[in-house]
Amino acid sequence: MKTPFSMLVTVAWRNLWRNHRRSLIMLAAIAIGLWGMIWMTALMRGMVDQMIDDAISTLSGHIQIHAPGYLDDPSVEHTIAAVADNPELDKLLHSPEVTAWSQRIRVPAVIRSERDVYGITLVGIDPQRERGLSFIADSVVSGHYLESVNDQHVLLGRKLVEQLETKLGRRIVILSQDPDNNIAERGFRIGGIYDTDLQATETTYVFAGIETVRRMLKMGSGVSEISLLGHDYRNVDGLAAEVRAVAGTAETSTWLQLDPYMASMLDVMDGFIIVWFCIIFLALSFGLINTLLMAVFERTREIGLIQALGMPPGNILLMVLVESSIMLLIGLLAGNLLSWLTLLPIRDGIDISAVAQGLEWAGMSSILLPAVKTSDVLLANGIVLVLGVLASLFPAWRASRKVPVEAITRIWQ
Amino acid sequence: MNSTAVSCRKVNKIFAQGELAVHALTSIDLDIASGGFVCLSGPSGSGKTTLLNMIGGLDRPTDGEITVAGQRIDRMSMSDLAELRLQHIGFVFQAYNLIPVLSARENVEFVMQLQGVPSSERRDRAMAILAEVGLQGMEDRRPGELSGGQQQRVAVARAIVSKPALILADEPTANLDSVTAEKLMQLMRDLNSQIGTTFVISTHDKLMMSYAKRLLKLHDGRIIDDIIQDDRQE
User: Fold this and answer.
1) Which of A127, A312, B184, B216 could be a cystine partner for A146, CB 3.0 to 4.6 Å?
2) Are the Cβ atoms of A7 and B110 closer than 8 angstroms?
3) Does the interface predicted TM-score (ipTM) exceed 0.90?
4) Same domain for A86 and A51?
């Protein structure tokens, strides 16, 4: 005879509240355990996401196209045809799969002020196309952003301006090499100063209009790179294959290939989350098993009675599992609520500027934005629920295997 | 009524206590006819409870055969034994008879719920039987809110509500005052005579024994006397 599930739930629910204090402590442990999983994961995800976003917005995009050899020797000699000269690529870049794209001339150069000289990377950009693709359009804090591909000004990072002991509106000179290996030199006025979270970015990149740079370097119509964004940085292989198919002899690289450190961070992060969840659950499971074992031990006589009345062992096992499941579900509900309530106030980020300097090597910014991913929340809930029920199997099995007479003996004698 | 409700053939039960083997039951041969009202008497340790456990399928004999309701139970699986108890046997224990988290009515409904009796019928039968044992108005009380006697009456109500063929009771009157005990005995005897329920009762109570149609005396795990007290039985 199959025991009605409603009866199991009724008995399990009432049993759960027989020892309020013990159940509440266990519920608190489950809730705090889940909160720890979700909260820490949100911060860690936020950290890695931000590092990846920074890396992607620092000119790399999701996918880049270069001339063969450019990545090893990023000189003016290694150029590819501009988008306008490749109709198939032009068509793909204007398809819904691509959210933003731009082409750049990007060469090593030297910048000189009245006071000092530094090595830089000169980047000739199409100012309008860079909006939404890279950081530069939104990072100008003094002066103005470049107005066109022919803009005669340059944009310098705040730190570089400090190092050069110059300022907005002053002239600087940039030297590089043209395709004939002659020195290409041109004076610019500083039109804008940009600010980023990473000082290395500010001291490395100097931006100018792409056509201005082209004239300075005496280049033809080619470009150094084409950079584009898809919809999801985690799924770029499909789009990369399409780009590769129309890019001819040019090399197509995803951000994962361009920045293997970040790619490995992503993999490490996914693995770490699983390990983190399991460690928290392991601590939790001891409490859960202990609580259920105590509950089963205390109810030995009752379990014997229920068996004597005709409940099959399988249903007694189910009854204990239902009890643990109810406890887990309430604990998870409380844990999710607690996570939401504690993440809500920091949704705009936590200022970690006190340690941001030290963490800059890892590409971290000073504002840490928590990133709550549905998949992480589901995974945390799933792990606690599934492993929790599995952990309950032992006490439940113990309960179901009790020989009725051993339990009843306590009653009858 | 002359079919056999319970049959034991050369039933032995040996408990191991350390290196010592304790013979709780020795070569029990017993037939209890359907409709019997049998009391097991004897001093503590005589094997009354052990014999009830064996008949109820709560424990297994070391050897021998036990048949209840026409089924050999000594080699049945735990699940099959549970099913047999559910369908054919009612239990009344000496104490701790009830499930503490359920009300009196829910305790009485428990077995019927396991049997799959529809909710409304279950409720009506539980209310009626509780009224019959004098617990009208106390249906929603939990065991902790009932006296020992009231709890025992709930247990009896639960045992009889689904009209099992066999009811096993261990010292059912041990915790009751004499008036309540007598009412309970009368109720069991009425059930026995009206619907033919077979009762096997372990007791020290002389009054209880006087109600029995058949009295089995046990000593050191053996049946030493088998007395027919009522010519209406067996």
Assistant:
1) A127
2) yes
3) no
4) no
Closest CB from B59, B114, B171 relative to A3: B114
Residues in chain B whose Cβ is within 8 Å of chain A: 49, 52-53, 56, 58-59, 78-79, 82-83, 85-87, 91, 93-102, 106, 110-111, 113-116, 158, 170-171
Residues 6+ apart with CB under 8 A from A392: A288, A289, A292, A320, A321, A324, A325
- Mode of pairing for the β-strands spanning A205-209 and B198-202: unpaired
The residue segments making up the domain with residue A393 are 5-55+263-408
Is residue A85 domain-shared with residue A221, that is, in the same domain?
Answer: yes
User: Nearest CA of chain A to the CA of B95: how many Å?
Assistant: 6
Residue A310 vs residues A13, B7, B96: alpha-carbon distances, Å: 21, 21, 17
Residue A203's alpha-carbon distances to A25, A161, A172, A193, A313, in angstroms, are 54, 8, 14, 11, 72
Q: Which of A54-58, A239-243, A315-319, B71-75 has the least mean pLDDT? A: A54-58
Q: Is B45 exposed, middle or buried (0-12, 13-18, 19+ CB in 10 A)?
A: middle
Query: Would you call A305 and B97 a contact, using CB atoms and an 8 Å cutoff?
Result: yes
pLDDT digits (tens, 9 = 90+) for B98-126: 888 899 999 999 999 888 899 899 999 99
Residue A199 reports pLDDT greater than 90: no
Q: Which residues in chain A are closer than 8 Å to B86, comparing Cβ atoms?
A: 1, 309-311
State pTM to two decimals.
0.69
Note whether A194 and A300 are same-domain residues. Answer: no
Domain total in chain A = 2
pLDDT digits (tens, 9 = 90+) for A251-288: 999 988 888 888 788 888 888 888 888 888 888 888 87
Q: What's the mean pLDDT in A196-210? A: 91
Q: Which of A310, A313, A314 lies closest to B86 in CB terms?
A: A310
Chain A residues with CB under 8 Å of B111 CB are: 309-310
